[in-house]
């Protein structure tokens, strides 16, 4: 009978595991300074105004409020995603052939139009009825209009940035 030679193998789980974790998370860089810029301040304002709109308009008693809440929630999700992209530096790490400024600009133009429509529909619907929750729903529409202005301002700033980037 032949006997195979045995080779001792030593595995150091601790050192390999910590090296892999550190290497896999190296790309994350928290960019707190972004929220000190005009774009970052506008994103925070948009998130706060969206939360106020959701709190005032929920629950939806009219069909118009359903659309208004849809518009506010969709735009809120978009702002949160863009905020994380800037906060974590995702757009700087990903080497995708995407024009990030143009993508964000298109997102903000669509969000501005959606919020504008939702706010006007919400305001006109609640001004024509006499229900218990009329005051807070009119207030939600008012904050929606202010949020629309904030989104429009962001879209304008992104358009100027896009124009500047193309000229250089």
From TrEMBL:
Primary localisation category: membrane
UniProt keywords, alphabetically: Membrane, Transmembrane, Transmembrane helix
InterPro entries listed in its UniProt record: Marvel, MARVEL-CKLF_proteins
Membrane topology listed for this record: Multi-pass membrane protein
Keyword Transport annotated: no
Spans traversing the lipid bilayer: 41-61, 67-88, 108-127, 139-160
Keyword Membrane (UniProt): yes
One cellular component (GO) term of this entry: membrane
Coiled-coil ranges from the UniProt annotation: none
Pfam family for this entry, one: MARVEL
Chain ranges of the MARVEL domain: 34-163
Name by which UniProt lists this protein: MARVEL domain-containing protein
Source organism of this protein record: Chironomus riparius
